[in-house]
Design a protein that fits this description.
The chain is of the alpha+beta class. The protein has 18 helices and 16 strands. Helix 3 packs across helix 5 and helix 6 (210-226) packs across helix 14. The longest helix is centred in the N-terminal third of the chain and has 32 residues, at 162-193. The protein starts with 6 loop residues before the first strand and ends in a 16-residue tail after the last helix.
């Protein structure tokens, strides 16, 4: 094998590698190495090649002899030393890396600027070192795939953050051990109870993130199932005030006879306005956009699933349309030129609004979160609908439009509304109505997703006459809590620290793939199998489905990234804790297996994963 290029650049994806070649080299040529596209160009007077990977190229696994499910007690997995091995689907990328790395001088690790990207950069460095021990490495981090950002990043390279790498690897190792042990325990227990219910090739997966997520959804469903509706009564009336008829309602009555007595007295009484309130209020624009909020808003307003939202956002990023979409920051850094972004949007359908903002001082909204790594999600390139849809389809445009409108909203004035309330008294019966009048649309002009509907009430004053034009008593029942929305689930996952910005949507999606729940109309609906699995774990080993336990685990892993904890000791402590929970569950194997077999017989395994069970980790 001959000498490679003077400079090797490793990116996260092919499209980013191509963009780097275009922005740094001006002209470039493409070729393939081991079947992987690569790009050759000149950079700084030297020959350069950029190569894109496809996520992690290495993964933790058990020694081969431990992957024989039927011959190995799952409890032994807690004490096994894991090995870092190539992912089978990534072998061609490893071959390409090694081929290009032989004999070259400098390697730029231009992977995504997040913890996962840091770990993948380290994995790439290991492959280079295997064939070229003297290679030098520089870490390049950028927040947008634009010429300005790429050029800036390569002029100021840094070093790999090995503490972040250790945190990611510690999480991977812990999740593999826990996920594999409990997945095998559940699967083997069910097969022992009824081999036909779960034939070889299918399994019941447990994941230290995936399963607490299911627990949150099932807990809400259990609340709904145990809810006992209570009957109550309200008086609904049309009341004449200020020369208009206004729909009004009473407070609830527990007994119909009390409502009837109050209405009978009201019909004989003289009506007066008891309260008339008209108060101006500002509705503040949203704070700058971070990952989970993008997913929540797309799920709520666009009916686009969280996983699909992040997948689309990443493609928009790689194509140079938006900034890096994995961020926790809700404060625009001073290094972000907001006017430059507005100038970029002037040539789009948002141009008139951007022009108006450019004509006034900019005072962006601010959140409370600043991760020190990435700015909030914002547009980096102006584009029209047809351009985006041609490359990413209709949903691509809707996500891009949401990002653009959100950015513009953060630079806009607040909306101003008048909150209105009228109460009319008829003897003992008080009837109420609430309304609103929009005084200034403010940011709603560009951000219609949050716009409130105008429902004005007439202008009256306390003491004005009121007429009971018509009235009736309505029987009602208290409503159970709604099913958990994907938007609410993401918010709870953030609160408990279940997963990262990069993985939250994946943990939801894994539950769907496993047949434990489905998403319908933006709501999370557990299946019979999901209900059985979660309720069994809640009864017999609650800690392994408790989101607080995962939250504590994430806090320990964060200590690794901060350099305050030894990763091997953290992994060992996590393993010991979950080994204790494993013993709780092992004692209850017959009861749990019986409950799960019943659910499987009722068709709960229709979507259950049928991947090779030797390699199934159940992690996530």
């Amino acid at each position: 094998m001959g000498r490679g290029p003077d400079v090797l650049i490793v990116a996260e994806k092919r499209s980013v590698a191509q963009a780097i070649a275009r922005y740094l080299g001006g002209t470039y040529s493409s070729f393939k190495v081991s079947g992987v596209p690569a790009y050759r160009f000149k950079y700084g007077g030297a020959g350069a090649v950029s190569l894109g990977l496809s996520g992690h190229i290495l993964d933790f696994d058990f020694p081969q002899e431990m992957n024989r499910w039927g011959a190995v007690d799952p409890a032994r997995l807690f004490d096994e030393v894991l090995v870092l091995t190539p992912r089978p689907e990534a072998l061609k990328y490893i071959y390409a890396l090694r081929s290009l790395a032989r004999g070259q001088d400098l390697v730029y690790l231009a992977l995504d600027a997040d913890p996962e990207g840091e770990a993948i950069a380290y994995e790439a460095a290991l492959q280079v070192r295997a064939v070229n021990p003297t290679a030098r490495f520089k870490r390049v981090r950028f927040n947008a795939v634009t010429k300005a950002e790429i050029t800036r990043a390569f002029k100021a390279p840094a070093d790999l953050d090995l503490r972040v790498v250790e945190k990611v690897f510690a999480r991977m190792a812990s999740d593999l051990t826990i996920g594999a042990a409990f997945t095998r325990l559940l699967t083997l227990s069910v097969r022992r109870e009824d081999s036909a219910a779960l034939p070889f090739g299918r399994f019941l997966s447990y994941g230290p993130c995936q399963t607490p997520v299911l627990g949150l959804v099932v807990s809400r469903e259990l609340e709904r199932l145990s809810f006992k509706p209570e009957e109550y009564f309200v008086v609904r009336a049309l009341v004449g005030v200020g020369g208009e008829g206004v729909e009004m309602r009473s407070k609830p009555f527990k007994l119909r006879e009390d409502a009837e007595a109050a209405l009978a007295a009201a019909r004989k009484a003289e009506g007066r306005v008891a309260e008339a309130r008209y108060e101006k209020a500002e509705v503040r624009p949203p704070v700058p956009l971070e990952t989970v909020e993008l997913e929540r808003r797309a799920s709520r307003w666009l009916n686009i699933r969280a996983k699909a939202t992040l997948d689309i956002a990443e493609e928009l990023y790689r194509l140079g349309y938006i900034s890096y979409p994995r961020t926790e920051t809700t404060i625009y850094p001073p290094t972000l030129d907001l006017r430059e972004v507005l100038e970029e949007l002037r040539r789009t359908q948002f141009g008139e609004y951007a022009e108006a903002l450019l004509g006034r001082p900019l005072t962006p909204t601010r959140g409370r979160s600043y991760d020190g790594a990435h700015p909030p999600i914002h547009p980096t390139k102006g584009a029209e609908r047809g351009e985006i849809e041609a490359r990413l389809g209709a949903r691509g445009w809707r996500i891009y439009e949401l990002v653009v409108r959100h950015f513009l909203a953060t630079l806009s004035p607040p909306a101003v509304v008048e909150r209105q309330r009228i109460a009319a008294a008829f003897g003992p019966l008080v009837l109420e109505a609430e309304g609103r009048k929009v005084i200034s649309r403010g940011y709603w002009a560009i951000y219609p997703y949050e716009e409130e509907e105008e429902e004005p009430l007439p202008r009256v004053e306390s003491g004005d006459p009121a007429q009971l034009l018509s009235a009736k008593i309505e029987r009602r029942q208290t409503e159970p809590p709604p099913r958990m929305s994907e938007s609410e689930l993401l918010r709870l996952m953030r609160r408990y620290g279940i997963g990262t910005d990069a993985t939250m949507q994946d943990h939801i999606h894994t539950n769907v793939l496993r047949g434990y729940m489905r998403i319908a109309g933006g709501k999370c609906v557990p299946t019979p199998l999901g209900m059985s699995l979660a309720t069994a774990l809640m009864r017999h080993a609650r800690p392994i489905i408790d989101p607080e336990v995962r939250s504590k685990m994430e806090a320990a892993l964060q200590e690794v990234a901060a350099g305050r904890a030894d990763p091997s000791k953290v992994v060992s402590a996590i393993r010991e804790e979950f080994k204790k929970y494993y013993k709780y569950l092992e004692v209850k194997r017959p009861e749990i297996a019986g409950e799960l077999v019943k659910a499987l017989r009722e068709g709960g395994a229709g979507k259950n994963n049928n991947a090779d069970p030797r390699r199934s980790r159940g992690a996530g």
